[in-house]
Amino acid sequence: MIDVLAPIFLLAALIALIHRTVQRASSDPSLRKGLAPSHRLSRPDSSPGWHVERKGTTISLWTASLNEIPGAILQRRGARTRTLWRTGYDFGILLGVGGMLVGLGGLMWSAGAVWKEVWREAELHAKLKEDASHVMRRSLEDLERTAVGAGAAGSSPGIQPLIPGVTIPLSHFPTVALALVVNQLIHELGHAISGAIDDVQMSRFSFSLHAIFPSASITFPSSSDSMSTRAKLRLAASGPFHNLLTYVGLILLAGTGLPHLFWTDQSDNGVMVYSVPPSSPMYGHISEGDMITHVDDVFMGQDEGMWERYMSGDDIGDLGRGWCVDRGVYMSLQNPPCPPNSGTVVFEPLDPTAGAPPTPRGQVKCLQTHPILQIPSAVCPCPSAKWICVHPKHDEQIVRIRLGRERETAGGGEDGVILFSGDRREVLEGIEVGRMKARFLGGLIRWETMFLKYMSTVALSLFIFNLLPLPQADGSSLLRSLLALKKSSRTTLVGIPTLQATLSSPMSSKVPSINLSRQYDLNSDDEDDYEEERGRGGREGDKREEAWKRRVRRGVEGTVLGLGVIWAAGWGMLSLLKSS
């Protein structure tokens, strides 16, 4: 419950803090002194307080009261600080270009990987359908388990999206939403500061709700068109640069060992379960915070690599061990195949003599798994001839997972045993484990660790995703500015005034001004038309240059958008195949 209540409380506190900041900024004369008088045409977005807009399924809550804050911060820090910040954001341009290339490569790889997995799943379904008419149900289940286990061990669908209820538990949605909002605020702060460095003030700050997905954004006035190419590169890369700094900061924090102050090593007792996604076969059976002590009676503690080594290998942990049952009762049991949904599997007697002949079929029986497999196995043979030592047939692929659960009172009962039928590699890939246990407030400490994990994941995702050359993404603006470096002819055109977001001249501050703010995203296609209007008085060669740049940019955007659609469609198809 803490993983739901904690993020909701913090998200509400964050919204209250932003609202309080807006109220203070609206009433602070030092932040409002640069605003023009109250004229309907002057700064149409500068009225204090919050305003609501609705477009389709998107509801936006925006304010202009925070517009002056980034510039005020830089002004108080002095010119030297402004120079240092400008140098840092120049370095962010290089990282932005690198992130764009990494994102393009990762998107191509992910699109191919997910459809490769779709093809494997389709082949499996076709093979099972073909064999269904002449294979017994039990054999069909063995075939399916073998094929699925081999596929899970040898393939990967590439980058996995964070989908609550599908790839992550539904209860993680508030935490993911909080991590997304915080990272977006950090992202937009980068754009705001970068613009303020070049004396371009943002025109509004917005909170939006797209269906059920929250987001934050800022917009700039049309005066950003007059910025130099280098300044535009800084402006486009600054948001993702902040996300990358967040990711690196969290990695460095984890490397300091500070988080370990809240955890204690439990490697002497087993491995701790950190997360179980909904796609895992263990979901609903094993929970976060459980401790796995044994698998097939193999102790998972002490040896740090035992969990991964055993779960990914082919060793039989209880080889030569079994359970002693009454011989007469066992011989009276039903012969295979075992009835479906009966809770029985095929058992066979164990002969401890090396080189013994195979067990006669008459001694292979269908036996209930509970309660016999709830207790640890013992070394065969049994103490008397009245008993017979039996074990599930190895092709049944029974995996016994013993849990050491925390009990509220001493003597709270036997440890739980989870039985899984299938390739144990599926369990390995479906559970995230570790060696550390929270020292106190276990639920809160586990949530804090989960939140920091999602913070780093979302920060890196925003860095890569926003740098992809997609419409409405920073990568499109970055690509546009990179193409402008080919031949930068940033000269002031005669007869076309340069639009400014603020007037810094002492003389001009005395005169009411009308700021022609044009709201747009940095990569909007409307900017193409605007640039064409501004360039009508230029040379014909410049027009041809702008035309080929626009074609290149739109071609790249279309290609990336197509790859994104292919990747998303692949995940949709894969989900349908696995659900069937």
Automatic annotation (TrEMBL):
<feature type="region of interest" description="Disordered">
    <location>
        <begin position="28"/>
        <end position="51"/>
    </location>
</feature>
<dbReference type="GO" id="GO:1905897">
    <property type="term" value="P:regulation of response to endoplasmic reticulum stress"/>
</dbReference>
<dbReference type="GO" id="GO:0004222">
    <property type="term" value="F:metalloendopeptidase activity"/>
</dbReference>
<keyword id="KW-0812">Transmembrane</keyword>
<dbReference type="GO" id="GO:0012505">
    <property type="term" value="C:endomembrane system"/>
</dbReference>
<dbReference type="GO" id="GO:0031293">
    <property type="term" value="P:membrane protein intracellular domain proteolysis"/>
</dbReference>
<dbReference type="InterPro" id="IPR001193">
    <property type="entry name" value="MBTPS2"/>
</dbReference>
<dbReference type="Pfam" id="PF02163">
    <property type="entry name" value="Peptidase_M50"/>
</dbReference>
<dbReference type="InterPro" id="IPR008915">
    <property type="entry name" value="Peptidase_M50"/>
</dbReference>
<keyword id="KW-0472">Membrane</keyword>
<dbReference type="GO" id="GO:0016020">
    <property type="term" value="C:membrane"/>
</dbReference>
<feature type="region of interest" description="Disordered">
    <location>
        <begin position="520"/>
        <end position="546"/>
    </location>
</feature>
<feature type="compositionally biased region" description="Basic and acidic residues">
    <location>
        <begin position="533"/>
        <end position="546"/>
    </location>
</feature>
<protein>
    <recommendedName>
        <fullName>Endopeptidase S2P</fullName>
    </recommendedName>
</protein>
<feature type="compositionally biased region" description="Acidic residues">
    <location>
        <begin position="523"/>
        <end position="532"/>
    </location>
</feature>
<feature type="domain" description="Peptidase M50">
    <location>
        <begin position="176"/>
        <end position="484"/>
    </location>
</feature>
<feature type="signal peptide">
    <location>
        <begin position="1"/>
        <end position="27"/>
    </location>
</feature>
<dbReference type="GO" id="GO:0005737">
    <property type="term" value="C:cytoplasm"/>
</dbReference>
<keyword id="KW-0732">Signal</keyword>
<feature type="transmembrane region" description="Helical">
    <location>
        <begin position="91"/>
        <end position="115"/>
    </location>
</feature>
<keyword id="KW-1133">Transmembrane helix</keyword>
